[in-house]
Known about the structure:
Elements: H1 2-31, E1 34-43, E2 47-54, E3 60-65, E4 70-75, E5 78-80, E6 94-100, E7 108-114, E8 119-125, E9 133-140, H2 153-156, E10 159-165, H3 182-199, E11 203-207, H4 217-226, E12 231-238, E13 249-253, H5 255-267, H6 269-272, H7 280-285, H8 289-321, E14 330-332, E15 344-351, H9 355-361, H10 364-384, H11 391-395, E16 397-401, H12 408-414, H13 419-425, E17 438-442
Parallel strand pairs: 1-5, 10-11, 10-12, 12-15, 13-14
Antiparallel strand pairs: 1-2, 2-9, 3-4, 4-7, 6-7, 8-9, 13-15, 16-17
Helix pairs in contact: 3-10, 5-8, 8-10
The structure holds zinc ion (ZN).
Amino acid sequence: MRLLSLFFIRLIWFTIAVASLTVNNAAAANATKNSIDGIRVWPAPENTRIVFDLKSKPDYKYFSLSNPNRLVIDFNKTKNSVALKNLASHDPRIKLFRTSHSKENSSIRLVLELAKSYKLSVFPLAPAGQYGNRLVVDLYDKNKPVKVVSKPKISLGDIIIGIDAGHGGEDPGSIGVKGTYEKRVTLAIAKKLQRLINKEKGMKAVMIRSGDYYVDLNRRTSLARKKHVDFLVSIHADAFRTPGPSGASVWVVTKKRAESELSRWLLKREQKSELLGGGGGVIKNTSDSHLALALADMSKEHSLGVSFGVANEVISQLRKVTKMHKKTPQNGNFAVLKSSDIPSILVETGFISNHNEEKNLTWSKHQQLLASAIHRGIRNHFMAHPLTGSYFAAVGYKSHKVRSGESLSALAQRYNISMATLKSVNKLKSNALRIGQTLKIPRTG
Ligand SMILES: [Zn+2]
């Protein structure tokens, strides 16, 4: 009995000792339980995004100082394992990354020496995709007006094509087996498309993203609007969880999505009337809800019609240079297409998850073929259905007198235009042609 109680006392003592040892160890581990394992800097035209990779959820505080401008971030109980020296060498807004003394040994104080004072946004991100815990710091230029293309339509008659290269910066998009990033493929094709469009008389390209940085999806449409874009093409590459699927597809916004956007817009039409571009002024100035609804509806119908028209033309050109995953325009819910006021399509240029297509998509010659198919598709549509006051409207059509043995498909081939466009331009109900019939042929350059 006595022996037994002694044993229990020993046991209790032992348990307390182990418990306190555990607490001490935990305290030691807690002192530097987190670590900064990576820092990425993404300069963009209007902001710089800095991303800190952390082992676990960041515990941080930050403040700004002026004269000189600095941003100070304290990471609590964290060690830094990233070399800071050359981090800011390619960024116009950050002059230097350095550490400074922090009050606690277990913490790290990072100081960013800045070129100016910026609007700040600092927020943590939970693990997602290939990334673990992150802390994001955005430095925004203060009151920098967006560089707006002065509306050249009236004098020059250019149609403005917005080119939106999907993803970018922190967002790599889909990643191929060989490590190809969708964001690089989309930007390469976008730049090739930009050159082709700017060489074409009557068209002008504006890039929604021109480098390796992320642009918020809502920002993409608002940029398109600010740059007076007549038509927006968003470029992507598809991916699937198995390597089987391949081919390109072209997407337009669903009518339902456009309608819900429209009804939301109508609720705030006073504030948001600029959304409808040309119609906005009229809609803004009418207090008649029915008239506003009718005008907005017309604008939406027009926008959907143009989107479908271009989608068909782009498909008829793409199928000459690549396999098609889908041969008709697909209805999508992509956020970048949601602004029903700007006609737009989203082109999935191929499957990055397919071994062959991954290889092709990184090949400059294939990128060029895709870009020129998209260019021809857009051009053909706007030549066949020119916008009022545009150069294409002034150039007009040439005519073709149908001779014996000529078919609609042969003529479409010869003039490098889709049968659908030939039919719609000439208001043909069937594919049948009469000898001697005169057809309008859009001048496709
Ligand atoms: Zn994508």
